[in-house]
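Reminder to self: tokens first, then the designed residues, so the page reads top to bottom the way the pipeline ran.
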């Protein structure tokens, strides 16, 4: 989990270490005519100048890995949000449709049609189920737009959802009729 979550940073550290090894190999090869200290000595006990440069290689590569990780983090968060919205819609769609069909069945019953309170409650439940279904459809469209990378359309969809809910405040806070 740790490796998967921070892979960009780990790749950055790995790149810095690889640059350290390549620089040590280059210095060992160049210094072979002057000094016979060898690659291992150059790799593990570099001079002060080489240590500063190789340390900066690691810092820069790790910084680039971190920047890439942050960039991808936003994308991962959006993907997780979209997956959550799709899962929410799938979980919500079936019960909402059952509620609507059961309310239609109830409203067709003569006893409910004659009882004013029962008919009012059935209408309220049916209206709420339709609102839930409409919101679920709009949020599904939003998640599809986010997944396709159409950010401006997704923002407009969210604004239309907000406008729709603002235009129908009674839909979101209907009072249930009291039973007398």
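Designed residues (180 positions):
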């Amino acid at each position: 989990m740790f490796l998967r979550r921070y892979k960009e940073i780990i790749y950055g550290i790995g790149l810095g270490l690889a640059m350290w090894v390549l620089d040590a190999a280059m210095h060992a090869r160049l210094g072979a005519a002057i000094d016979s200290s060898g690659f291992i000595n150059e790799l593990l006990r570099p001079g002060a100048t080489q240590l500063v440069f190789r340390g900066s290689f690691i810092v820069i590569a790790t910084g680039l890995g971190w920047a890439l990780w942050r960039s991808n983090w936003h994308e991962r968060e959006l993907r997780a949000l979209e997956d959550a919205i799709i899962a929410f819609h799938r979980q919500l769609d079936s019960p909402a449709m059952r509620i609507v069909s059961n309310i239609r069945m109830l409203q067709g019953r003569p006893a409910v049609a004659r009882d004013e309170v029962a008919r009012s409650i059935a209408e309220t439940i049916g209206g709420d189920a339709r609102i839930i279904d409409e919101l679920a459809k709009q949020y599904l469209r939003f998640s599809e737009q986010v997944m396709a990378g159409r950010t401006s359309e997704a923002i407009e969809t969210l604004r239309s959802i907000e406008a729709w809910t603002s235009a129908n405040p009674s839909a979101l806070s209907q009072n249930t009729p009291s039973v007398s």
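Residues 153 and 159 are 10 Å apart (CA to CA).
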